[in-house]
Write a structure and sequence with these properties.
14 helices, binds 4'-deoxy-4'-aminopyridoxal-5'-phosphate, alpha/beta
């Protein structure tokens, strides 16, 4: 019974009704890259632009006050969605990437020095690697990577030992891998890190859209995610930080809104959250994000997680049973709705193109995780990633289409002749 609202939700997504270039009905399995938007989100943004849009905070006039109220209400919705203690611990940024860069530039530049260690995992997205490498270029710190084991997992013992050995100032890791699908035990690792006096940053880009997240329960110091992966607009995301940390950090971008007072001799900084929101913020995007969060909350994050899990199980089992197909990632009990795979003798791009002919959208390449791919010794993978509006039928269509692609590009018994 709890599944029906998820299936019914398809009607709220106009794009899911379209066909692709070949004329086949769209089967959208590229949700880890970005999700689609329901009418509620499109309408909320349209309503803002049509009826009350103006710049926020500054103008004492009706439209500005209405926009400001809607923008700040969106912050409240976002704070509730992730279980923040107070609204101003939620900073609106341009996305997960912008959020991590903000922490690296402000907390990092202030607290990290030569020889200090930042601990990451090998499965991080480039967004949670490169800003720390840039910090290392600026301040001379070191970066250590936790390896994954043969089952694509990292044990608590490995985490514990690395924290003990390297005594990192920061442990930054993904709550859910965008390639392996692995869901890391955030609360446990955060506790271990805190026991070793490390600050913890969670890349929750692949977690917040797919399961109930509570940042206070995690006890994480920083949590980042993007709006567009949770049915919200592009160009907006969240940096959550514990108030004590955010208060102690210098601002990042300078300009309007982030100041208390400016004189020719200098400036003083505004209080949270304005301190980290210089310039005109993404106003309609915040309003759209709040509408998206309300939409997925109504469907229920537990329902969403269960449904995705079942689709993942079905896809994972089918892929593992196919000759010449290798799943890159743990068994479904250890992951969310992401399945990456390789097909013998067919490049990931050809797999993707072949599936597209049947209307099926999957991603191919390194998925912004080149160190992980290098570690696994592969250059490219294909990835199917599910969201609540996908169906078991779509999973079956994907598998049937993949079998066709395999037959076409790498027919069995006709191996290429050696020269
Ligand atoms: N981290 C992870 C795990 C991701 O999957 C992504 C998006 N692919 C990001 C960070 C970066 O998000 P964005 O591009 O929206 O800033």
């Amino acid at each position: 019974a709890t599944l029906q609202p998820l299936l019914d939700s398809r009607d709220d997504f106009p794009v899911l009704g379209r066909t692709t270039a070949s004329g086949a009905p769209l089967v959208f399995l590229d949700n880890a890259a970005s999700t689609q938007r329901p009418v509620a989100v499109i309408e909320a943004m349209g309503d803002c632009y049509r009826n009350y849009y103006a710049n926020v905070h500054r103008g004492i006039h009706t439209l500005s006050e209405e926009s400001t109220a809607a923008y700040e209400q969106s912050r409240t919705v976002a704070a509730n969605f992730i279980g923040a203690a107070v609204d101003h611990e939620v900073i609106f940024t341009a996305g997960a990437t912008a959020s991590i860069n903000t922490v690296a530039r402000t907390w990092g530049d202030t607290n990290i020095g030569p020889g200090d260690v930042i601990l990451l995992t090998i499965a991080e997205h480039h967004a949670n690697i490169v800003p720390w490498q840039q910090l290392a270029q600026r301040v001379g710190c070191k970066i250590e990577f936790l390896p994954i084991d043969d089952d694509f997992l990292i044990s608590d013992e490995v985490v514990q030992a690395a924290l003990q050995k390297h005594q990192p100032k920061l442990f930054a890791f993904t709550a859910a891998s965008n390639v392996l699908g692995t869901e890391n035990p955030v609360k446990r690792w955060t506790k271990i890190a805190h026991d070793h006096d490390a600050i913890v940053l969670i890349d929750a880009a692949q977690a917040v859209p797919h399961r109930a997240v509570n940042v206070q329960d995690w006890d994480a110091d920083f949590v980042v995610f993007s709006g567009h992966k949770v049915c919200g607009p592009t160009g907006i995301g969240v940096l959550y930080g514990k108030q004590t940390l955010l208060d102690a950090m210098p601002p990042f971008l300078g300009g309007g809104a982030m100041i208390d007072e400016v004189k020719t001799s200098g400036f003083t900084t505004a209080a949270l959250p304005d301190k980290f929101e210089a310039g005109t913020p993404p106003i309609a995007e915040a309003i759209g994000l709040a509408a998206a969060m309300q939409y997925v909350s109504e469907l229920g994050l537990d329902n969403i997680a269960n449904h995705e899990h079942r689709m993942c199980e079905r896809a994972d089992a089918a892929l593992r049973s196919m000759d010449g197909v290798k799943v890159i990632g743990p068994t479904p009990d250890k992951k969310g709705g992401i399945v990456s795979f390789q097909v013998d003798r067919i490049h990931a791009h050809d797999v993707s193109q072949g599936l597209d002919h049947d209307g099926i959208a999957v991603r191919a390449g390194h998925h912004c995780t080149m160190p992980l791919h290098e570690y696994l010794g592969v250059t490219a993978t294909s990835r199917a990633s599910f969201y609540f509006y996908n169906t078991m039928d779509e999973v079956d269509q994907f598998i049937e289409s993949l079998a066709k692609v395999q037959k076409k590009f790498a027919p069995t018994g006709r191996r290429r002749k050696r020269s």
